[in-house]
What we know:
40% of the residues lie in helices and 18% in strands. It is an alpha/beta fold. This is ChbG/HpnK family deacetylase.
Amino acid sequence: MASGLYINFLIVSGVKMLRFLTLFTFTLCFAVTARAEDDQTRYVIIHADDAGMCHSVNMATIDSIENGIVNSSSIMVPCPWLKEYAEYCVNNPEGDYGLHLTLNSEWGTYRWTSVAPPSEVPSLHDPEGYMWGNLGDVAKHGLNNEVEKELRAQIERALAFKIPVSHLDTHMGTVAARQDFLETYVNLGVEYNLPVLFVRFSNQAFPGLNAKKVAELVDRLDSNGLPVLDNLVQIYSENDYDKREQLYLDAFEALKPGVTQVIVHCGYADDELRAVTSSAERRDADHSIFTDPEFIEKIEAMDVKLITWKEFHEMAKAKLQTAKSK
């Protein structure tokens, strides 16, 4: 995710205060979590976004999974390098693969169009014929029926590639840009029986969205055995390896009981990625950090339990079954 709706949290480590960004894209009120209420375990999904975007990102993401502690990823279906990552998924079906549902094409000279024929979803394209570059333009111009058609087309294309899809999430948080988009996103998750990235924060609601309707969406997920995250962590500040590593360590130390997703963006700072995005060094740092044996050892020494979206889904289904049997 390159942008979205955010709130800032402060981590205090000794006398040093460190700021990191926690994604607010899906802040929910009154959600019921998939874990038992008395479970004090700190569960973590370490999730790499943007697979399929380009070759550099694919290779670094795969390496972070195979030689690091990244244990989940999500795929940008409209992007040119989808097939390469899809083949990896098919050849490694035990992995945890989500769909990074994409309604934006944000890079200046490296852009893509919709999966659905552009003539059928014209409101999702800018005057140059690419998907809109930012969340605001999608919210302003996008028609919800066309959003649904495009998101469904992305899911169906991934399934046609035989990707063993475990969950849905959103590029740049765009599905939370409007209430109707959000409802469409949840409806698709329920229809395909796939967890959707949805996060609970007590006493907070979506800016500009109807809190009552948001709570109803939470109830719908819960009643269908689809899990809801307790927290979501994403760090944008610092390209410097050592400083970025310390931010991650502090974030892990500060985790509270519940299920948290830590989002990373892996890549190699090569000519390809530098031509695409100004975030090449940051993505390279994420790959290096999450494959660093010393960093991995520090995380493994913490009181956290790594899980995947597949496991999180099973937790939610088990909780629902227990509730029904009472």
